[in-house]
């Protein structure tokens, strides 16, 4: 028998009932779940492949939906259902960002039902659930968000595209319409087309899939019974039509995604090509020539091309493209090129020097690195030493004269490093030895970022609060701090940080900072105050 432990629900307002799902929580919530599963697999001598890692978040996150006693009056007798993909003995239900109910089961299960009965002002709100992985690793990430609102209203569902938001020959693009209420009928419409209406019944599900073949602006809604009014429409999803698929991304593996690499004759290198869709055929090209080389893959949408025992003729520009399965499908546009420079290091080393407007340049200054060769008509490469002692290419130039000028604008401590340069003649692999290293050091913290809230007024309990941390220079990661503690973080180029499922406990002032190469960290931004509305 289940044992119920009441939580501390927030005060509720007077709006009525029905259900609305929202997007899954921010990936930061799921990091602990990922590490838990990885540790479990390691105990059995297993590991996660990149494809399995990508799927793990979905597989461990619970799903939350509502079931009505009668779809004629869904708010008269409502039950929330939390389903876990793994067997568990403990579930938690949250409302408006605070724990509402906790259940411990004597025997393991994958589903827990939370009856609400007739929805009242006290049960209206924004719900999520989670479950315990085991007694030592604690709770998983939160489920999708479900809104319970009022009689006579059916809030908008969520519409999304899969796998991409465009159509072309050979690709099956699908629009997924999800509501929080199980068993409804979905309606798909295209903007400006009064004749276009597609229906899909989902008697045992909370979402419906609509294949889409034409470009347009689409929205969906749902109704609980044939005579009932439709819900509010979802946000619009735009589907584009493309004569050929968009380009993939090509990079030199091991060079932090750089678009160039300096190599010696006889060396080997891997070029990684990533497509926006899976299940495609890849092709590597040098100029207009298709290259048939060994390749391998870890995920359906990525391939690695192996170039072994490089020869002088292997120097040049490389691109990749992909083709969807199916007869008569077009190849994608070519990727941005990657350049491979081959150098035997036999030519005299160039000279590298630095100049700036001031004798001691500080953050924000312009520093020019000048690389001079004995001969004109050379291809110059600027190299910057990384933390591992490698020297990937950071710039390429082919000036008419014997000197290349590489400008470093708005320099900051993240530009501190040892620089060198080389040149390659018109007939590879004739190339120079590297210049003497030139050390550039800039002291002090990284420039202060700016933090902006992406909401206005007070945040309703149970909603997400997104903040944008705008950095004056490129960053590797961002951190959001509240009361001196890191409460959210993100990696990569995104500038958005999210406080998921806000409750009264989130009220307060927040600042952000960013990190470049370890151990460089910026100053804190000016604070932003988050106010949480009362229910």
Summarize the SSE layout with pairings:
Layout: E1 3-6, E2 18-21, H1 31-43, H2 50-60, E3 63-68, E4 78-95, E5 98-117, E6 125-134, E7 138-139, E8 146-149, E9 158-162, E10 166-167, E11 173-178, E12 185-190, E13 197-201, E14 207-212, E15 216-223, E16 237-241, E17 249-252, E18 260-263, E19 269-274, E20 280-286, E21 289-291, E22 295-296, E23 302-307, E24 316-324, E25 338-342, E26 351-356, E27 367-372, E28 379-384, E29 393-397, E30 403-408, E31 417-424, E32 438-440, E33 450-453, E34 465-470, E35 477-482, E36 485-491, E37 496-499, E38 508-515, E39 528-530
Parallel strand pairs: 10-16, 18-25
Antiparallel strand pairs: 1-5, 2-8, 3-4, 4-5, 4-6, 6-7, 6-8, 9-11, 11-14, 12-13, 12-15, 15-16, 17-19, 19-23, 20-21, 20-24, 22-23, 24-25, 26-27, 27-30, 28-29, 28-31, 31-32, 33-34, 34-37, 35-36, 35-38, 38-39
Helix pairs in contact: 1-2
Describe this entry's structure for a reader.
- The chain has 535 residues and is mainly beta.
- Helix 1 packs across helix 2 (50-60).
- It is globular and about 85 Å long.
- The two termini are 33 Å apart.
User: How many alpha or pi helices?
Assistant: 2
Which structural class is indicated by helix and strand composition? mainly beta
Q: Quick one: how many beta strands?
A: 39
* Domains, number: 5
What's the architecture of the largest domain, going by CATH?
Sandwich
Distance between the termini: 33 Å
Q: Helicity, in percent? A: under 10%
**Low-confidence segments, ≥5 residues, pLDDT <50?**
1-58
CATH C-level class of the largest domain is Mainly Beta
Radius of gyration, in Å, reads 28 Å
The largest pleated sheet is described as:
8 strands, antiparallel
How would you state the average pLDDT, rounded? 86
